[in-house]
Amino acid sequence: xxxxxxxxxxxxxxxxxxxxxxxxxxxxxxxxxxxxxxxxxxxxxxxxxxxxxxxxxxxxxxxxxxxxxxxxxxxxxxxxxxxxxxxxxxxxxxxxxxxxxxxxxxxxxxxxxxxxxxxxxxxxxxxxxxxxxxxxxxxxxxxxxxxxxxxxxxxxxxxxxxxxxxxxxxxxxxxxxxxxxxxxxxxxxxxxxxxxxxxxxxxxxxxxxxxxxxxxxxxxxxxxxxxxxxxxx
Length: 233
Prior knowledge:
The protein has helices at 18-24, 29-49, 69-92, 108-121, 137-151, 160-165, 212-223, and strands spanning 2-3, 10-14, 54-61, 96-100, 128-135, 177-180, 199-202, 226-227. It is α/β, with parallel strands linked by helices. The protein has one domain (2-225): Decaprenyl diphosphate synthase-like (Undecaprenyl pyrophosphate synthetase, 3-Layer(aba) Sandwich). The strands form 2 sheets. A 6-stranded parallel sheet has the order 4-5-3-2-6-7, sandwiched between helices. Helix 2 runs parallel beside helix 3 (69-92) and helix 3 (69-92) packs parallel to helix 4 (108-121). The longest helix has 24 residues, at 69-92.
């Protein structure tokens, strides 16, 4: 048994509920997504202040491409605006940006904005902000297996460490804590391999209403838990 006496190193967030939040206010889904972006900025700043080392935000899933074209277009434009408008924030707070996912599917203008901010922040030493874009756990594992099959002829060369080294997250620790907003109890294809022993914190709060106080509550809840990693108490 391992007491979680320390703040989590890596926190993942499934930012759910933008659309339902907007619907409850008789607003458009795009209004909800805009509010969600503002909330993401607030939480990034707070995580940096809390000295969290890695924060992964599930921003756009591989399955989200099936949404209406107008909504996808809005989300891609919001991504670009977020990246360029918040670059000064990343610089001020020493935040390093990186991504996971099948980002080749993103439109050129979004990839260009991503690459620009990634390059500008690559030497930062504070919080590493990971945007999961065009991401799904199954797709990530599939891409990893395809690469492994090209590189390894002997199946006995392949173990858990080998597989981990081909994942998008190969240069970061597994998430200690995953926060899910909007009250849904499912993984939604998020970090399937990496979350084998992650602790989950599920809140009924829609993402735009999620506060820094509740973020802190999730961390305190994590610290209070006993992590057994398959062992016994």
